[in-house]
Amino acid sequence: MKSSLLAVSAAVVVATLVTGLKDRAALQEKFGLGAAGKPAPELMMMGRIKPTDAPAGNPEFNAQLVADKIEAITSPPPAPDRSEPDAAASQPAAPRTAAPPAQTVAHPAPVTPPIVSEPPAPQQAAAAPQPAVDESALRYFASRGDKVRLQAEISRLQALYPNWVPPADPLAVPQNGDKQLEAMWQLYSDGRYAELRKAVADRQAADAGWQPPADLLDRLDVAEARARLLNASDLKQYATVVDIAAATPSLLTCSEIDVLWRVAEAFIQTERAQRGQDAYTYILKNCTNPAERQATVEKASTLLAYQPMQALLALERPAADGSKEFDAIRDNLARRFMAEGDDDPNLAIAPDYIARLERLAETEGLASDALLLGWYQLRRNNDADAEKWFRAARAKQDSAAASQGLALALIARKAPEEAEDVMFRWRANSDDATATYLAATANLMALQPPADLAEEVLHRIATEVIARKYVPTAQQFGWYARSLNQFQTAARWFETALAWKPDDEPSAYGLVITREQLSDRKGVLDLQRAWAGRSSRITNLQDTSSLMPNAVTPPPAKGGLVAQQPAQPTQRPPAEPLPAERRVTLQPGAEVVVRAARPAMETMTVPRGPRQTRGCSTTIDAGQLKPADALSRGWCLMDINRPMEAISAFEAALQSPARKVREDAAYGQSLAYLRAGLSGNAAVAATKAPQNRQRAAELQVAILADRALSAFDAGRYRETLIYLDQRAQLQQERIDLMVLRGYCYLNLKMYGDATRIFEAAAATGSRDAARGLADVRNVTHPDTNN
């Protein structure tokens, strides 16, 4: 029985040695490590990873057969399944599974530790061709009942000492007289490396003639390096990860797959994507565990671009049933690649991936898949296909993204009326959605012949344009009114557009020709003087009887939505007027009237130095200015009531390295958002730089007041009361906000509270409060009021 067991053990050792040497040869070729018996090269060779195939001549190795033989030695319970004999790695905090064998030593020289995943095994430097074998680690693992590490140690010792024969009963616990060394192995096994260092030092201090096993120290060095690498990776200190890996090449094997993943990520995050790709290539060429290979591709797909991923997928191995090993994740890969194609219009995705995603969209019916296809086609100007998929996405789930994509496709095929209707519901969902809606309105108003729009559509478009101060559509309202021969209305729209953007030449041109047709010679001369040297067609205005500019606003850029500027108008024949009863009744500046007059925005004193308004009346890119100049321009734009442009200027000023500039920029941007009625954005802007207590309190009071007004306008009266209560805790409530509170109670049918608030406010002489009292009486005593 004993001789049979010895024979089986010898066979297992030889097979395991072949496998370990195979992984060692691959490691040497991939990362530049020296061959057996040669000194290791410079550690920075790790930075020049050049993936190649594993060395030729190594036969394919049946890992399962070796695992079965190990199980035969160690008996129950079975060891954890591994795809190759060196696939176990050690964690810093706890012992792991089996490790690969070390490199064979052909002459008396210290043996370089193979990889960090090897379990501890003390080893003295060889002093003779057949040195004595240190079996302390073997005995330790046997005493702990760690059969996996026990077998790994047997394989390692057999690789180091070919003439060594393992004990007949490897699970027996021979008497070990060195209890201190056994305690050291215990510390190593528990991951208590600092305590192990101290124990070694203490024993050397007490016993000058004692030397720790070289293998114990080597394993300790590698284990500590692995712990440092994992910690640096978790902290996203990617340069440190690369440095540690370069200094510890024994970590870079298939048994340390997690380390290889982290090193690949570190390369990519430090702008060395090719080396990261090489690391993933090494795994796919040399490692055989199916789950680890699949996880490698999934991890790589989140970090590498489309083209490098195709090179990795080319290393896919066929399965026994004729399928491919990555088929299980190919659907998600197709989605990932299509999303990348959505962002890059110049990226051509293989037709196979597009066809796969189309099948998924049709069979699984996910709106997200249809959206990916829609944006991909839209970015490539395939508007018909894009419209098809966006409609499919909206049929599954009507969302802002699907509606926005459909609206862009409709604008591209000159159907802005439907685009406006599709986007109206989602117009305030995001800045991109707002830009898309406004672009649709501008293109709708610019249609020729003019669209026959319902009064309701005209009203809602005008309301949004006024609320957003959107110049292109305001300008188009002017041309639209001209097409209906309503020149007074057209002039007011052009004037409104110029008030929002004084350097808008198309609006100025529309205004000057309209004033000419209204015989307003003084107005014409004023405009010509104002635009002298800036617009030849305004200063050299001739006969305007046949002028009707056709300024069509292009849709927002697909994939990168921005606020649009109007195109330069061109001359065209006059449009045929619509019937006289078809009138544009909305005038610029009209607002929806609510029962309570909207209180004015709170005024706050801004403690800052004097500034000049000169030089900010023209439109320039604030991003090209120095931060300090951008800050000055932002305040200048606020003075002339152009908050949306001021927001961009303050954003550029936020890039300043000076703390004071950043504080003022964040404060100014918050005020600009408040003036534009975007209290949510104002709250976000206030956090971009620390503010002093006074400014923080001012901003919070203003933001709460604006939110209360917005909630009241939307008919959310209980929410309005909450905001008013929060504001009242910070600052005494103003009379106009008291009136707003009273109307909230009135709309909630809390007539007693409404009366009390209106009476208190009316006592100060507020006419709005007096009207509120009259409204309460009209509701509660309709028979006694006129």
UniProtKB/TrEMBL annotation:
Compositional bias, Low complexity, is annotated for: 86-106
Highest taxon, organism lineage: Bacteria
- Where does this protein have compositionally biased stretches of type Pro residues? 110-122
Annotated stretches, region: Disordered: 73-131, 543-580
InterPro entries listed in its UniProt record: TPR-like_helical_dom_sf
Q: What is this protein called?
A: Cellulose synthase
